[in-house]
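Extended Data, panel c. Modelled sequence:
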Amino acid sequence: MQDIFNYSIFGNTTSSYLMAFGIFIFGVVIVYGFKKYILNRLKKWAAKTDNSIDDFLIEVIDKYLILVVYFGVLYISLHTLLLTDDFKHGLRTAAVVLITVLAVRAVVSVVNFGLQSYWHKSVNSLNGEKQLKGVLGLINFVIWVLALVFLLDNLGVKVSAVVAGLGIGGIAVALAAQAILGDLFSYFVIFFDKPFAVGDFIIISDKMGVVEDIGIKTTRIRAIGGELLIFSNTDLTNSRVHNFKKMEQRRVVFKLGVTYQTSSEKLKAIPQMVKQAIEEQEGAAFDRGHFASYGDFSLNFEFVYYVTGADYNKYMDIQQAINLNVFEAFEKEGVEFAYPTQTLFIAKNN
């Protein structure tokens, strides 16, 4: 029996193999017990909480950390044996590759979770899912490129010359694609600052319309006339953008003029008549009304009121109702609206 335990295979005795196997089995049982009894209880506890951070952290531990621990158990058990240099190098390479891949996947999961949580809390809309996927794709690409450079460096590949070459080439590409890179950075500015979103009605200079799509280089806006306006992201971030979707109330100023033949009593009554017409409309709040000026052919009044919300159709419905009410009130009181007229005085010579 003693000879069996002392029997040597590839430089290790049978007892050494049994000890390594025992360490591996013991470690696997410990990890399996942790996963089944402790981690599952943590999952049930996390499912009862209101936030999703604890659920996400437990999921990361289950998907990535447990695999690393399993491999660590195998790594430790194998290192109790006498191993050849080639086998040690291969084992080390496998460890570096596995840990790097799992670490990058964990980092990507954390970044994706953080950005998705930030986006949904700040926007509360599904219209930006496409924009969010574009940002996540770019960030994930950068993370994997950096991870690849790190992995090659740890595997003994001389990446300093490659990185230096890429740096010089990157400068040349940046100079050649300056406009594209500018639009790309402007895309990130729009994503994080959110001056507008898909579905917002915006005005840029003399152009206006509803935002249909926000891309990495351009933003597409559907104009009121139906045509599609395409702006580069840099143009939008460098312009003054009027966003009517975020408007809580609309300030409306309208004027009307009556004839000079209107009596002073009726002039004094006009502000109250228009005020009543405005206050009768639901969603409209009267601000002020005044006899503002003497015109060339009319006595001019100016009125200001507010409409709650940003709905343009609602504003036009209210304005139409006010115009009709004012017209009816003026017709009832005998007040005439002014329009451009000229009076000629003819002198007769005797």
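The mean pLDDT is 81. This feature is highlighted in the accompanying rendering.
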